[in-house]
Every structure is written in C-alpha cells, then in structure tokens.
Design goal:
Blueprint (H helix, E strand, L loop, with lengths): L9 E5 L2 E6 L2 E9 L6 E5 L15 E9 L9 E7 L15 E8 L4 E2 L9 E8 L5 H6 L1 H7 L3 H14 L3 E4 L8 E7 L3 E6 L2 E7 L6 E7 L1 E5 L5 E5 L2 E16 L3
Parallel strand pairs: 8-15
Antiparallel strand pairs: 1-4, 2-3, 3-17, 4-14, 5-11, 5-17, 6-7, 6-14, 7-9, 9-10, 11-12, 12-13, 15-16
Length: about 260
C-alpha cells in the first residue's frame, strides 16, 4: 500500500506540473502551462503494472483531506482522486481499453463530458462508471447509429437513461467550496460505491469491478464527449499558479 507521508508514492510530472512537500502536506502544482503542451502533476500506485495487477479491489475505503487554489470554474483543466483502470495509455504501454472509475472528479469549461443525464458535463463531482461490463460489447456495435439518434432530443431523453444504467454511470455535483478544506470519503464495495464529504453522503452508485489503481492528479487538459457524438480534446493555458493541497490520504480495508 502506498505510504504517501514517506514519499513512497509514484510521482508523475509532465510539462509545467510538479509535486511538492511542505511539512506533512502534499501539493500538486501546475504553473505557467501553455495550451501547446500537456502538463500534469500526479501520484499513483500502478505505474509499470499490467492492469490485471493493479492493486485495488472492492472492500476499500479511500479518505482524502484536500483543498484547491481556485474555485470551480476558475481552476483550469481536470483534477481529482480515486480509482480507475488508466484506459488511455497515460502511464504505461498497455493496450487502450474502455474506462472503469470511482472517483472525485473535476473538469473546467470547455470540458463537456455529459455522461449522467441529470448532471452538468463539467464541475466538481463524485462519479462512477464501468464501461467494461459484458453488456457494453453489444452497445459498442450500435454506438455510431445511437450517437446519431441522440441528436434527436426526445430520443435522447428516452434512450440514454437505459444506456447510462448499463454502463453503471452515476454522477453528482458536490455542494462544497473547492478552496476550503474538506474530507472526501469513497467506500468501494462489491455492489455499491458510496461517496461522502465531511461525513455527509453525496452519491450512492453502482460499483465498478476491480482491479483498479489509485490516482490523484491536476492537469491542463479538457475533453468534450457527449452521447450525441461530439468529441474533442485539447489543452488550456495556466498562466499563473494553481494547486491541490493534500493533508491526508488513507486506504482502509472494509467488508466488500
């Protein structure tokens, strides 16, 4: 298990990203980033591992005490912490795959990841999804015509909720100020994953399967991905300094 207080976490920094320590606190920083180069400050515990050896499975509680330099909408890029399967070749030469995740996730405009029909496509959220469930395979075969149909809003309202349930997608905006200290808790069981902030429940959703890896990051990217077939990726300039400061990270076994 990662011992972050002793500096045993795997650090990953790119471009204008850096990981700093100040006493017992950890700070992930992006400063002076441009829109021409990806910048990331990250810690994780799965670097160089094949996905089948990622270290975490249901029966685990993640607790993080953290704050950010900027509020939602002003912090630029994406940020967060939790568990995922690193599907996009971010930290190793693994085959690309579909995503699985349970995490606290932030995306600033112009990101628009409209996966949960009841939740905005950007903001500071609790979120879960598992696009690698067996039911996903037949959905992939109709992805293109389905994306065309989703442009017809009555069909989107009728069809997307069933697809969302099949992919175990659930999200909820967090009713807290990002710049203040908060304690974020994610309890990952075999059937459900429960999120809380300062002890107050914020989301109860279907759990992704493991194994997954722990990740915490702050970067300067944005992503547009909508059910009606709109996809775009890009980078944002961060002319000043922005950061995520962390006072606690703990992983505690629980009953699955």
């Amino acid at each position: 298990m990662m011992d972050w207080r002793n500096g045993e976490e795997h650090r990953y920094t790119v471009g204008a990203g850096r990981v700093e320590r100040d006493g017992g606190h950890l700070r992930l920083v992006v400063a002076g980033a441009t829109d021409r180069r990806y910048s990331d400050a990250q810690i994780d515990d799965y670097r160089r591992l094949p996905r089948r050896r990622f270290p975490h499975r249901p029966g685990l509680r993640l607790t993080v005490r953290a704050r950010f330099s900027h509020p939602a909408g002003e912090l630029r890029g994406t940020a967060g912490f939790g568990f995922w399967n690193d599907p996009f070749l971010m930290t190793g030469l693994r085959p690309p795959t579909l995503p699985r995740a349970a995490w606290f996730f932030y995306a600033s405009p112009p990101s628009e990841m409209k996966l949960d029909r009841a939740t905005p496509g950007h903001g500071w959220k609790a979120a879960t999804l598992d696009a690698l469930r067996p039911v996903s395979i037949p959905l992939l075969t109709i992805a293109l015509p389905a994306a065309v149909l989703m442009n017809i809003r009555p069909l989107y309202r009728r069809l997307w909720p069933a697809i969302q349930r099949a992919l175990h997608i659930r999200e909820a905006l967090l009713p807290v100020e990002m710049t203040a200290w908060h304690t974020y808790t994610l309890s990952w069981g075999r059937e459900r994953v429960r999120f809380a902030v300062d002890g107050a429940p914020v989301l109860d959703g279907p759990a992704p399967r493991g194994p997954l890896g722990f990740v915490m990051w702050l970067d300067n990217q944005y992503l547009v991905a909508t059910p009606w077939g709109k996809f775009r990726w890009g980078l944002l300039a961060v002319p000043g300094v922005q950061w995520m400061e962390v006072a606690e990270i703990s992983l505690t076994p629980t009953s699955p």
